[in-house]
From TrEMBL:
Organism: Candidatus Cryptobacteroides avicola
Native organism taxonomy: Bacteria, Pseudomonadati, Bacteroidota, Bacteroidia, Bacteroidales
One matching Pfam family: HTH_3
Protein name: Helix-turn-helix transcriptional regulator
GO molecular function, one term: DNA-binding transcription factor activity
Superkingdom, taxonomy of origin: Bacteria
Amino acid sequence: MQTNNHQINDYSSVLEAKYGKKGSPERAQFDEEAYTFYTGQILLDARKEAKITQQELAEKLHVSKSYISKIEKGLISPSVSTFYRIINALGMRVEVVRPIA
């Protein structure tokens, strides 16, 4: 691992050193937590872009404001169905595409 001016040149080696090799239980747990955080950030940004409050979103979904807050903070991961309900409530859609080979 080399760093210059706090720039990481090989991020996978940093992750491996801290969380273990891909496929290890520790790395899988880190990856899951990272996905949960990333999902929360996507939803937070989308909610702000839609200019609605956590309370307004919660009311649309019939859930608590604290539930929305926990998702946005990456503390919990919504179920797939709840994720789609949030996306729909924010006027967005999910598109699944195959990468170009």
